Amino acid sequence: MGTLKKNLITPSRTLAFSFIVLIFIGSLLLTLPQTTVDGKGLRLLDAMFTATSAVCITGLVVVDTGTTFTGLGQLIILTLIQIGGLGVMTFTTFIAILLGKKVSYRERMYLQEALNSDSLQGIVKLARAVLIVTILIETVGTLILSVRFVPEMGWEKGLYYSVFHSISAFNNAGFDLFGNFSSLTGHVDDGMINLTMAGLIFLGGLGFAVLMEIYTLARERKSWRSLSLHAKCVLLMSGALIVGGTGLIFLFENGNALASFDWGNKWLAAFFQSVAPRSAGLNSLNLSELYPATLLVIIVLMYIGASPGSTGGGIKTTVFATLILSVVSTFKRSEEINFMGRCLPRSLIKKSIALVFVSSILILIVTIILLFSEKTDLLTALFEATSAFSTVGLSLGLTPALSDVGKITVMLAMFAGRVGPLTLVFALTQDQLNGSGGIRYPEGKIMIG
């Protein structure tokens, strides 16, 4: 019985359960009358949807955050975003450290799963560094945003808005307080706000391990070459996606959504709209006015998402890079998959393919359900499904009008996107089951292409 219980209580299951518990608590709190302006509280399903979106750091909302919730309701949402972004295990472990408690081996395994680390060595130190770096970056973001918000709104409201949006952006959550589902469309020409928010989104999407490496690199004044292969891959892919996305959005929308802007603001809006879909869910352009070609580019950016071990979702930049390298290797008729003087293991390719396949199937299923339940068009349903699964939070306006079936479907997609890929990667990195008996079957061939 003890062995069975040990097998059932795995780090991946504990991680998933911790998110469920947090969502449940958040849902109950958001049904309280004190959390909404009308004094009625949210109905349970809407409260569950909002809590799921906050804990899974997505940003899709069925009610407007800025006009529906009181200060207490917004504070609950902000707390769910912060804990959800850091990870319940990371947050609780740090509290245990502050209280002077020793972190057990099992708790270290939970941390390893939560931080997507490949080693237990130094995992507690990494968790502590993650929280410190998070607080530092969010504080800097708050100070910069307050330069704009405080003169505009006054000290109390301006500082509150700065804190809320700094935390939301760094955790790639996509929640905002500007009201009427407007996001940053009212500040599309404000360089300070857009660049600060884009910087927070970018840093949050790099992954804590990469942030630690960059910090060490700067502190010890080392060269780019001293970065790990993972960090180089993340930075190169992130940069390429931002540059490529900015160029395509500018090209497609220059005579449409960007037509009324001056040259500088055109590039600013295109840049922000290229950074945000990677998992943040904030938008400075009215998405309903964009061309279908632009929306398709945004869908691709959402699908790829951020990087491993970050606050973002999607299939991850490293998985996308691995698939590209695999295709290039096939075209070259090479048996090895090389990157920056290193040969990538075939197991990595298998895991990447499995992750992309499962993610694509889940998005397809959600799209089909939304097409049936909401009677909407294909592009809108696909956009919403990708946004939910990749924990982005962008919407073409479908989410606030979702039926109960649609809400439940999108909730499950957000949860799967936040927890599912992590659980899948963990499962795929386990040793083969002993049932194979070490048997190697004769090689067989099937036709491809």
UniProtKB/TrEMBL annotation:
<protein>
    <submittedName>
        <fullName>Trk system potassium uptake protein TrkH</fullName>
    </submittedName>
</protein>
<keyword id="KW-1133">Transmembrane helix</keyword>
<dbReference type="InterPro" id="IPR003445">
    <property type="entry name" value="Cat_transpt"/>
</dbReference>
<keyword id="KW-0812">Transmembrane</keyword>
<keyword id="KW-0472">Membrane</keyword>
<feature type="transmembrane region" description="Helical">
    <location>
        <begin position="192"/>
        <end position="212"/>
    </location>
</feature>
<feature type="transmembrane region" description="Helical">
    <location>
        <begin position="288"/>
        <end position="306"/>
    </location>
</feature>
<feature type="transmembrane region" description="Helical">
    <location>
        <begin position="410"/>
        <end position="428"/>
    </location>
</feature>
<feature type="transmembrane region" description="Helical">
    <location>
        <begin position="75"/>
        <end position="99"/>
    </location>
</feature>
<feature type="transmembrane region" description="Helical">
    <location>
        <begin position="352"/>
        <end position="372"/>
    </location>
</feature>
<keyword id="KW-0406">Ion transport</keyword>
<keyword id="KW-0813">Transport</keyword>
<feature type="transmembrane region" description="Helical">
    <location>
        <begin position="44"/>
        <end position="63"/>
    </location>
</feature>
<dbReference type="Pfam" id="PF02386">
    <property type="entry name" value="TrkH"/>
</dbReference>
<keyword id="KW-1003">Cell membrane</keyword>
<keyword id="KW-0633">Potassium transport</keyword>
<dbReference type="GO" id="GO:0015379">
    <property type="term" value="F:potassium:chloride symporter activity"/>
</dbReference>
<dbReference type="InterPro" id="IPR004772">
    <property type="entry name" value="TrkH"/>
</dbReference>
<keyword id="KW-0630">Potassium</keyword>
<feature type="transmembrane region" description="Helical">
    <location>
        <begin position="129"/>
        <end position="150"/>
    </location>
</feature>
<dbReference type="GO" id="GO:0005886">
    <property type="term" value="C:plasma membrane"/>
</dbReference>
<feature type="transmembrane region" description="Helical">
    <location>
        <begin position="15"/>
        <end position="32"/>
    </location>
</feature>
<feature type="transmembrane region" description="Helical">
    <location>
        <begin position="233"/>
        <end position="252"/>
    </location>
</feature>
